User: What shape does this take?
Amino acid sequence: MNENIDYKFEKVMVIDDTAEDTYITSYVIKKSNYSREILKFDLATEALEYLQLNINNPSLLPEAIFVDIYMPLMTGFEFLDEYEKLPEDYKSKCTVFVISSSFDERDINRARSNKNVKAYIEKPLRRDFLGGMK
Amino acid sequence: MQNINFYMRNNFLKNSIIGGYLAIVTIIIVTGATVYFSAAKVNYDLNDYTQRLLIKDHLVDRFRKTSNNIQSSVVSLLYYNPSKSDSATISTINDLVNQNSLRLDSLTILTSGDQENILLYNLRESRSEYNNSREELIQINTKDSVAAIHYYLQTEIPAYEKYQQTFDQIERGYFKDNHIRGTEITKYVASSINIINFLLVLAVIIIISLSRILWLAFKNALDSQKIAETREAQLEKLLEASPDALVVGNREGKIVYVNKQACKLFQYSQEEFLKGTIEMLMPERFARRHSSHRNRYNKQPLNRAMGTLDMPLFGQKKDGSEFSIEISLNSFETEDGQLVLSTIRDISDKKKYEEKLQHSESFARGILDSLSSHIAVVDQEGTIITVNEAWNSFAISNFDPNITNNNGVGANYFDVCKKAAEAGDEDAQKTLDGLMEVLNNKKSVFYHEYPCHSSTDQRWFAMRAVKFSSDTPMLVISHQNITQRVIAVNETKKLANQIFEISSSIPGAVYQFKMRSDGSFAFPYISKGFEELSGVKPEDIYKDSSLAFAQVLPEDVFNMMGSIYESANAMNPWLYVFRIINPDDKKIKWIRGNSIPGYADDGSIVWNGTMIDITDVKIIEEQLVKNNKVLKKTNEELDRFVYSTSHDLRSPLTSILGLVDIIAEETEESSTLSNVEMIRGRVLRLDAYIRNILSYSKNNRAEIVIEKVNIEKIIRDSFEYLKNSKEHSDVQFTVEIITHTPLYSDTSRLTTIIENIIGNALKYHKRELTNRYIKVTGEIHRNYCTITVADNGIGIEPIHQKKIFDMFYRIGGNIPGAGIGLYIVKEMVEKLGGEISVISVPGGSTAFTIKIKNHIP
Assistant: This one.
């Protein structure tokens, strides 16, 4: 990796129980120079633990989070409820995207109506989208 | 007056004086042997009042005897009483009148005292009061006596016959006796003087001198002249005292005397009277033939009364006006020949009254005859006294010989009824009983309706009888033809029966429920079906309306009554479902009441409606509710299943798409690239298929959510979402919506519809064309909204146009699609209350138009 490349973010987090999807999302993020580092979690519970553990260490916290909805143990919506409990200071600096293959309007609306969620992304993630997010 | 006095004097006195002289002369000539007999005739004293008393007493006695037979009469007496004291006479008369319950109309007592003064007592009352009564004047007249007595016997007409008989007896008896007695009196007058004294005087006279006799005779003549003059004055007063006009005429009709009443009545002065004849007192038409009547009367002069109801007489006054009179004639002989005394009475008032009476009778008759009811009046024996014209004409038209013969005047109505009753006619017996009850005051009115059919017509009559009291009780019977009313009533009954019959054959109960203003209620009608519903008989409910509610389930009663009051307050139809419980087997029935309220004339509210057993329906309904719950649950589960399935299906697909993207980005080989694109195409088609399946299941189950819709945004978003930047960069996309009013619809479905149509337009464009376009136009109206999506794509063959909306219909070729899109679109458009149509030119253009309902609130 070229250290001189201009990345939008230093750290982003991808939470998805499907390894292929994590791979695709990470690939597009990398190719788009969206983030220098990607924190990958296949369980929302672990991702949440990481955030809570490092909440006082901003350099370790992601600046954007891509979270799937349907996952074992903790769904994306349950994760968002816990995320809400994190300090406002951090949340205001972090962008959250819900990324799912669901086209159920109930899911889409629920995701969009969450004040911490920037956008709902229908899988697969495309470079067009991240380009627009720049 | 001089003349009449002279005649009267002759009549009463002079004749006697001359007779006396003649007797004396005869006695002088005969002497001796005839002394006793002739002496009695020579000397007399006209001042001897005993004879008058005899006459008077005789009459009073006669009156006393006969007055017992005079009923309800009014009596007028003119009573000549020369000697008895006035008060004694009056008390005698009063006693008589009182004893016999008579009413004294007038009493004129003519009496003279010792000084020859005549005193008149007139106790007469007003006469006009009795003008309508029958009057009779009797005058008793003797040639040598001034005694005249008038009886005015006034009676009511019905009693007149009896009176007449009595009076005739009096008259006959009296005149017979009195003519004889009159002559006897004359003799008595002579004999009543002391004959012996007279004979002694006569003997002395014969003996002493003839001249003495002659002188005595002369002196007697002078004396009698003097007496005669006194008598004349007395007579005049008597005549003037008469309440009637008196006119005396001679044989030629010349008037020789009138009294003041006559002058007053005819308006002539006495002088004018004495110059004229009797004929001047009557209208010209009678006067012409009167002289011949007069001559006939003179030949046979009978005392008689003239002028009756049947043969009216008229008098004529000086001014020519006529008036009704009654006349009584009395003729008497005088020296100057026969004279006739006419006593004239003005009866015009009486006549007028009689005419009035006749008029009112004919008036009543006219009214009776103008009535359409058949009316008969019968007396208490049942004899028909009178009938009206309608009764007559009915009897004639009826052709019933019984009625024609038996119901006329004079027939006995009770007998007719009796005969019919004996023949078995129950109505006749009822009628007879009823009439008797009215007659005996047990009932005031008898009313009876009965059939009386003729051979051609069915007829009904109503009889009404009331008692009518006149002198004797009578019944007024009226018959009225009530056929039309009876027919109408029968028709109504028939109609009512029909309605009852229909109502009883209708399933459930038909009823009328009435709530009075005081809150009480009743069932004026409830059909037999109610018994089947509840087991309670309608007859029992008529007696006690609360029974209708007795079996309503207790917990339903309160609400049911509430619903009734609610219906009454708002006058809205009453619709209520309630339960009744069978007290025996405790089975519950569901009843649906349905009725419409209205106001009755008495202010109460009346509901007409039905009660239907809906227990079966209710069971099914309950089952349905249960089923529905199960279905809903199943549906929700299915919904969740569809979503999770579609998600599980899609999830790998999106992964594949992502990986394909990565391969396409990383490969350098064109063959790999084209293979990857083929994979992407197939994956996208599978994805679209899954989406449509989901849409379809969603459309069927999801509720329509109506909200304000921004249709233009949906259209633009759909296009942005669907277009492929590489493929469709040259397509000219325009949207033009005319908005009159906001559109309210289901956003989700509308989005699916628009996406599908625009998706098709993109899909079926001609790639080689350079000026490709998609024009979306639309208009939002108050009630609906139209949207047309037009393109210049490949078009649709006519054979396909009708089928493109079918499920799984595909045109074929290498166009991607599952054949479900337009089917879902059509389903959704219909769900939104609209329709979809297509106009297409194959190889040229296509335009889809949807028209959906605007659910604007």
User: Anything to note?
Assistant: Confidence is low (pLDDT under 50) at residues 1-15, 32-59, 65-82, 105-190 of chain B. Chain B touches chain A at residues 643, 646-647, 650-651, 653-655, 657-659, 661-662, 665, 691, 694, 748 (CB under 8 Å). The CA atoms of residues 597 and 607 of chain B lie 4 Å apart.
